[in-house]
Amino acid sequence: MLPPFPQDVPAHPLLIIDYDRIVAGDKDEIELLWDAATKLGFWYLKNHGVDAEAEAMFEMGKETMALPLEEKLKYEQGESGIYKAAGANATDEYGNLDAVEYLNVAKDDALAYPRVVHRSYPPTVNARIEDIVKPFVLKSLQVNQTLLRVLGQKLGLPEGALERRHTLEELSGCETRCTKVAARTEPTRVALGGHTDFGSLSFLHNRLGGLQVLAPGTDSWRYVKPIPGHAICNVGDALALLSGGVLRSNMHRVVPPPGEQYGHERWSLVYFTRPGDSVPLKALTEESALIKDAVDRLSPAETAKYEGSATAREWFARRTRNQRAKNQSGADTWRASRGTEHQPDRS
Q1: What is the pLDDT of residues 129-177, one digit of tens each?
Q2: Is residue 199 part of a domain?
Q3: Number of structural domains the chain divides into
Q4: What's 5's DSSP letter?
Q5: For the chain, how long is the longest CA-to-CA vector?
Q6: What is the dihedral of CA 320, 201, 225, 134, to 10 degrees?
Q7: For the segment 77-115, what is each residue's pLDDT rounded down to a tens digit?
Q8: Is residue 294 within a helix (H) or strand (E), and if so which, with residue range?
């Protein structure tokens, strides 16, 4: 039994969104989602129906992480690999290393199995792709596609505009990730440095504290309290860019769990929805008056960020490549790995 999140540790409040009410088209609930997505960019999601699949994914992840390191390193295939050992990434421009070990399974591989689209996986993953990984991926896709549809409508985009940029058919960086932070990681060590997510929407399940957000207009990191049965969702860079900054991709990081939770292994599971590889990450000003108005109100320097020609694949490759410790060649490398809201003094 894991200890509860300590009551004396301040946590940043997140709005709670009821997925059932979103599916039903409840206008008040949709407004609540819009408020969360445009202000902090983070929210809790309840009644999403993916708890059983997430639990099975945790078990698969634990079995895979228990493999000998030399076996896991066979699947360390560079920046887009399946496995990443702790200490492989930098957490800041000074070269400090992360404490996160994780396993990625690409959406394209899970849905095409046994055909290999991107890469091959350890036997512990292959044995469970069809009955555990694929159901989790499909349900997570359904949740995030529903949220994309609703947010697209609120942005004033044509019907299906966001969904067409996130199709099942096009290859993409969509993936599920099972992450472990070892027990008793140094309490002052940043396990995963401050960052914004690469893609459009992240759908996170965790049991212990450790996730922190940097709330807009503040200078301090605040914990996000895990609530049983509630996923934590957030907007990523791709959706922030497509929306001209109307939707917020917010800085966050991972540190060791607080209070009595410190000393326990920290496990988390996330599904990243990312646009198709060929999708240009620029504001959809020609498709939405709301987005055009938002970009028109920016300074020329700010506007340039939303006029880029990088594709989702290029954006993903740049950010993953430049945060790898083996690729570091000074502060400029680290800065090149940052997202839409890089702040050099926020590790």
Answers
A1: 999 999 999 999 999 999 999 999 999 999 999 999 999 999 999 999 9
A2: yes
A3: 1
A4: P
A5: 54
A6: -90
A7: 666 678 999 888 777 777 788 888 999 999 999 999 999
A8: helix 289-296
202 falls within a domain: yes
Say how far apart CA 235 and CA 37 lie, in whole Å.
7
**Side chain identity at 222, as an amino acid letter?**
R
Alpha carbon distance 106, 232 (integer Å): 20
Is residue 153 within a helix (H) or strand (E), and if so which, with residue range?
Answer: helix 134-154
What span, in angstroms and rounded, lies between the C-alpha atoms of 313 and 330? Answer: 24
Please state the length of the chain: 347
Residue 142 counted as domain residue: yes
CA 180/CA 267 separation, integer angstroms:
5
> Which CATH number does the domain housing residue 284 bear?
2.60.120.330
Amino acid sitting at position 169: E
Of 121 and 188, more confident: 121
Sign of CA dihedral 230, 234, 239, 244: positive
Token pair recorded at residue 315: 């954006």
Q: Are 148 and 163 in contact (CB under 8 A)?
A: yes
The Cα 78–Cα 261 span in angstroms is 33
In this prediction the pTM is 0.93
Handedness of CA 93, 329, 83, 66 (dihedral sign): negative
Residue 249, domain extent: 46-336
Position 333 pLDDT exceeds 90: no
User: Three-state SS for 56?
Assistant: helix
Cα gap 151→157, rounded to integer Å: 9
Domain membership of residue 3 (yes or no) is: no
**CB 253, CB 190: distance < 8 Å:** yes
